[in-house]
Amino acid sequence: MMMMSPFYLSIIFFFFISLILRSILTVHSHDQREFHRKISLRPTLPEGNTLHVRPGSSFKIAVFADLHFGEDAWTEWGPQQDVNSIKVMCTVLDLQHPDLVVYLGDVITANNIAIHNASLYWDQAISPTRDRGIPWASVFGNHDDMPFEWSIDWFSSTGIPPLHCPTSGSSPSESEGGKDCSFKGTTRLELMMNELKMNNLSYSKLGPKALWPSISNYVLKLSSTDDPESVIAYMYFLDSGGGSYPEVISNAQAKWFNRTSQAINPNSSVPEIIFWHIPSQAYKTVAPRFDAHRNCIGSMFAEEVASQEAEMGMMKLLEGRSSVKAVFVGHNHGLDWCCPYKKLWLCYARHTGYGGYGNWSRGARILEITTQRFSLKSRIHMEDGSVHSEVLLSSTASEE
Ligand SMILES: *[C@@H]1O[C@H](CO)[C@@H](O)[C@H](O)[C@H]1NC(C)=O
Ligand SMILES: *[C@@H]1O[C@H](CO)[C@@H](O)[C@H](O)[C@H]1NC(C)=O
Ligand SMILES: *[C@@H]1O[C@H](CO)[C@@H](O)[C@H](O)[C@H]1NC(C)=O
Ligand SMILES: *[C@@H]1O[C@H](CO)[C@@H](O)[C@H](O)[C@H]1NC(C)=O
Ligand SMILES: *[C@@H]1O[C@H](CO)[C@@H](O)[C@H](O)[C@H]1NC(C)=O
């Protein structure tokens, strides 16, 4: 009998090994196909878009609006405002212990930031929340990527303050041409990528590419810890533009909202809550005039609504969904009301930052979602600890 040479033995050995491997891999990919088929039958959101709340307890959100970090860094006043804003946030976080913080745009005043990387200021604004281990989600306002504006004052007797024009790595002579001192700004995409890169507590998203240059468009799901299938609420975050492009929620964004909400909440059985920065034009129609506050609840009625430039279909869709309970915006520092509009509520946050115009006292809007039986309550928590303007937003007050 012929002995098999080691060469043939090893060929037979590898033949069997490859058979085994192939059968494992086929089974595995078959499982994956099954898995994906199941997912596509019932559209759902990935784990990175899901927040959890213990059954029976409530879910609390603190909304920080218009922080405007990074103003006038060359003065003593500027950095002091950021310190003050951090104090406001710490006070609210330590007294309210929210489960989520929403950064509602104008986190920084980019048109005032004379350094290359505005993420440095963005990061400072996020830090009180991150330091406490609280998750957050952010949307852009019109100031976050606004092009740098040279102050005209600097060209008179005050002179141009000492600026940091870092050399971009290579030889110092390259930067002498001044290109490092052109402050082209930090784009929405860069700001968001920097936020996500460093922060595993951030629930912000880059948004679908088809909607760019509009970036912060995404939806988060709030579900119960004991049953992830039972969704308590959907929270939509939209980029209302401004800065590097017009102040508007585009038709494409409206269509994205329509598609998404139809897919994940087809029969409107789950309540929906909406966040963006610049009020839509509908805010003008409900704004209290001449002290006639009607059914509005708030403490500041100090300005006119500064709305988006156009309405391109978003409000029509929101009005048409019985599940949409409220929209929250910032932008107007002198307004903090909630007014009923059709079957939902249009709400302002409360100016949280010491940056930005206006010297009204600072605070934050708090939202509280109860889970046993859904309700959405809100109030404003001031820097001095006082609380006011409590309102129940899950009832449709406009049906009077
Ligand atoms: C900008 O700053 C952020 C935060 O400090 C940092 O993570 C990022 O790497 C910086 N980007 C550049 C290009 O320097
Ligand atoms: C998140 O990042 C921090 C440090 O930045 C780290 O200590 C922590 O373990 C991270 N958590 C997770 C869940 O990755
Ligand atoms: C929203 O989606 C529905 C169903 O998918 C469709 O009938 C409707 O025309 C859409 N509305 C808009 C404004 O896109
Ligand atoms: C609504 O849809 C969900 C699943 O998408 C289903 O469980 C529920 O029974 C539906 N409710 C109504 C009133 O049709
Ligand atoms: C802003 O308000 C505070 C407290 O009400 C006051 O002390 C301060 O002087 C005001 N600042 C300006 C610039 O009006």
TrEMBL record:
GO terms for cellular component? cytoplasm
GO terms (molecular function) for this protein are: hydrolase activity, acting on ester bonds
A Pfam family matched by this chain, by name? Metallophos
Highest taxon of source = Eukaryota
CDD domains associated with the record: MPP_Dcr2
Q: Which InterPro entries match?
A: Calcineurin-like_PHP, Metallo-depent_PP-like, PAP14/16/28/29
Domain annotation Calcineurin-like phosphoesterase: ranges = 59-333
PANTHER family hit by this protein: METALLOPHOSPHOESTERASE DOMAIN-CONTAINING PROTEIN (PTHR32440:SF11), PHOSPHATASE DCR2-RELATED-RELATED (PTHR32440)
Q: What is this protein called in UniProt? A: Inactive purple acid phosphatase 16
